[in-house]
Write a structure and sequence with these properties.
By secondary structure, the protein is α+β, with helices and mostly antiparallel strands. The chain is built from nine helices and 16 strands. The protein folds into three domains: about 140 residues, ph1033 like domains (ph1033 like fold), CATH 3.10.590; about 100 residues, no CATH class; about 70 residues, no CATH class. InterPro entries: HNH, HNH_nuc. GO terms for molecular function: endonuclease activity; nucleic acid binding; zinc ion binding.
């Protein structure tokens, strides 16, 4: 089942009580709604649906599950016309100021032309669905951001799951510490060490992944932190959980290596007096910044002062890009 995009343009339809819906979904976990999907008919019940704010301030602001096949009804703005509708259950909604902007969406899920999606019912490419889910895990509402690294309480036993709105697990710091002591703080899949990128801010930060999902463990299970747990960065952690059962970290590491090899070497431009000039077209370039984007990085990207390159940092990565999509790497150590 392909996920779909639902569009809302406040300039065309005033959802006056949207903030109340945000609060109700956060409080109750879900709320039923009806949404127009234009002329689209190939939408399956059970599909994911993502709400894209359109118009002046674009961004991803909601997640839902489609609960019905499309059916015809009176057009919401023209009673003389008909449109197709689906029943949906909202699972989470973001306040508009917290929307995930296109600059982040385009960098992390480039399979969708986020700046050029209009209306509702368009399918999300299958190859982009995992990236959209990962973004929502990172930037979506806190109540839905289930962190699969959190350990249940106890003397290393994986205790009962505590249900609030979604399953949450209480972290056992001793199990985590034992895992980190054995395996270190670098991601075992991509090698990212947060302290090496973020300095003091990143010291000690890493997710801990259960090789066997916590939900499949009994109440008497005794976790072995060295055998059962592995450190993963948030991106790789989200990727292993895109499948059920989760992808083994060593398999994900092999996929990352294969992907980096398939991309091939990037152009390196040593000793340039003006590294911001594109070597292909001569247009001005902007530096590519890596790491999980915060508010300042997002603002700089929206203003066109930088480009966001994603969270995975790898050898030979490009460091500059231009408006035509040409990427190149400047060997700063070789510059004079």
């Amino acid at each position: 089942m392909s996920a779909i995009l639902l569009g809302w343009n406040p300039q065309r339809w005033n959802w006056a009580d949207y903030d109340e819906w945000v609060a109700q979904v956060r409080r109750h976990g879900t709320r039923r709604d009806t949404w127009s999907v234009g002329r689209h008919v190939n939408i399956a019940a059970g599909s994911d649906a993502w709400l894209l704010l359109q118009g002046k301030n674009r961004g991803l602001i909601g997640r839902a599950i489609v609960r019905s096949e499309p059916y015809k009804g009176r057009h919401y703005s023209d009673p003389e016309k008909t449109a197709n509708y689906v029943e949906i259950d909202w699972l989470s909604l973001l306040p508009i100021p917290d929307r995930i902007p296109p600059v982040v969406l385009n960098a992390e899920a480039p399979g969708v032309r986020w700046d050029h999606v209009y209306g509702s019912g368009k399918s999300v490419p299958v190859e982009s669905e995992a990236a959209v889910h990962a973004l929502w895990e990172r930037f979506g509402p806190q109540h839905e951001a289930r962190d699969p690294s959190e350990l249940p309480p106890g003397l290393f036993p994986e205790g009962a799951v505590r249900t609030i709105v979604v399953n949450r697990y209480e972290r056992d710091p001793r199990a985590r510490a034992a895992c980190v002591e054995r395996w270190g703080l670098a991601c075992v899949a991509c090698g990212l060490d947060f302290a090496s990128v973020y300095g003091e801010l990143g010291k000690g930060f890493i997710h801990v992944h259960h090789l066997t999902p916590v939900s499949q463990l009994g109440p008497d299970y005794q976790v072995d932190p060295i055998a059962d747990l592995r450190p993963l960065c948030p991106n790789c952690h989200a990727m292993v959980h895109t499948q059920d059962p989760p992808i083994p970290p060593d398999e994900l590491a092999a996929r990352i290596r294969a992907s980096r090899t398939s991309v091939g070497p990037r152009r390196t431009v040593p000793n340039r007096t003006s590294p911001s000039t594109c070597p292909d077209c001569g247009r001005p370039g902007v530096p590519i910044m890596y790491g999980e984007p915060g508010p300042e990085m997002i603002a700089a990207a929206e203003e066109g002062r930088i480009a966001i390159g994603g969270c995975v940092i790898y050898d030979g990565r490009p460091t500059w890009t231009c408006s035509q999509g040409h990427d190149w790497r400047v060997d700063e150590s070789a510059r004079t």
